[in-house]
Amino acid sequence: MYQSPESKQNNLLYLSRIYRIIVGLLFVGFLSLVWPYISNVVLILVFAFLFTTVLLKSVDSIERRINNRGLSVLIVTVGLLAGIGLFIGSFISEISQQATDFSNRIDQDTLTAEFSKLGAKISATLPEGMATGSGDFSAALSGFIQIVIENLAALAGVIGNFVLNAAMILIFTIILLAEYHHFKKVLVGFFSNKYFEVGLGLIYNIEKSVSSYLRGQFLAAASVAVMSLVGLTILNFTGANLTLTVFIGIIAGLANLIPLVGPFVGMIPAILIAFMNNIGNDVAMAHQLFGVVPSPFYVLDIVVMFIIVQQIEGNLITPTLVGKSVGIHPMMVMISLIIGGTLMGPLGMLFAVPATGILKVIIHEIMFVRRNAHLL
Amino acid sequence: MKNALWNNIFQGWNSQESETVLTLKQVPIFKGFTDKEFQDLEKLFHRRAYDAGEFVFKNRAPGEGMYIIMKGAVKITIGTRENNEQILAELSEGSFFGELALFDDDPRSANAIATVQSDLLGFFTADLMTLNDRNPQMGNKILLNLGGVLGERLRGTNQLLLESQSN
What we know:
The structure holds 2 protein chains of 2 kinds.
Chain A: H1 5-66, H2 69-105, H3 108-125, H4 128-131, H5 137-150, H6 152-189, H7 196-237, H8 245-255, H9 262-278, H10 282-285, E1 288-289, E2 293-294, H11 299-321, H12 330-371
Antiparallel strand pairs in A: 1-2
Helix pairs in contact in A: 1-2, 1-6, 2-6, 3-5, 7-8, 7-11, 7-12, 8-9, 9-11
Chain B: H1 2-9, H2 19-26, H3 35-42, E1 46-50, E2 55-57, E3 65-71, E4 74-78, E5 86-91, E6 96-97, E7 111-114, E8 118-124, H4 125-134, H5 136-166
Helix pairs in contact in B: 2-3, 4-5
């Protein structure tokens, strides 16, 4: 049967597409098979890359002054470790002080009585159908504490693993910071002459997008930390009796890095501290927000304060600082968060948005190459 | 025998300048650079090999930076081989081209084609930005020298224009 050259060409194109799809599917299958073995290394590398992106500007600017890359990396790393060490050290010391004060002030009977009182108060405010079961609030909480103690050994393992991973991330970050520009050059070397300039542009755009997104996010996190600190101080003026305000602020700021879920996570330490500090205090137990809504231990005040902080951050600060650095539609952000969360839990949620941003840049560049293929 | 032994022991002490540095030293854009600066600069350049007849870039393609000819030759053309190819310039070792892409986002205004097997050194906007972050003194030197070269070329073009008008 005669086939015209055009039809032959179309058939070849069709076959080539099928071949590409099969290769793609095989690659995805292979990746899903080896993923359990390489996921940890990939995670470490991704973390190291993100830390490198955040710290690169500082290293470059120190290098500009002292004209020595190695020393610049050392200064930034030591500074970062000292900052983290100082934060964790003082946090542990403050929290242990807090725990000692709490245990000195309260005995088990008082604690159980307070739990029962709080449980009764909650059941009173709940509708009839929902109130059943909450009467045994103290027992449920005691059971929970028991489970936590039983799992301490597992927790030690998790902490050990975390420390090992953190050390690996630190080592990779130092290497990447020292050799970043060299690695980039080596990576560019893999592109063929035809795609060389496009590849260079792609790497440059990804770098710019990720770095501006991360810097914006960290600035937004810092602003949440400062605003939370101010809010908690204002609440203290109204008698909330909150301690560790600096740490609560920093934790709220860090939690804010996880979109959508983070802001709620940031409230938890503040609520726990409010509860610990005010237990046994009848005035705090009977507190009402604006003199109308019952807010035992200032819990509702704290929630409202954090919502106000989130609104200021979300509507005023982030649009100004982050702007359209990634420019992803809110619906896409939610979808990527769900996928990230399903694949890798909270860490996946943390990286979902920058990863989507990178994908967007890559897709944009591929479309650009396809449009301009005749010019390459 | 003795010399070879000592040369092996002290190899690198009197190391010769690399081919890249030797090429860069011929280029007016890097006039006034110290040896140390040339060594730092070398790390930023991308060495690429092109076959005879291979396009370095095409007319109207997006441009990211400039190229310096280390070995071989390149012709700058407009039009295509099939359709009215016009050769604007034939460049040899030590020449550079495409430098306008360092300053603007406009597409390339001509084709660049390797006429023989060539080795080129690429220097791109992203590299210039990096250099400005890490060593602004060097970045400024390059920009000033590039300004000088472009000014010289503009003066040459003006001269040609005057000559063509007077004829």
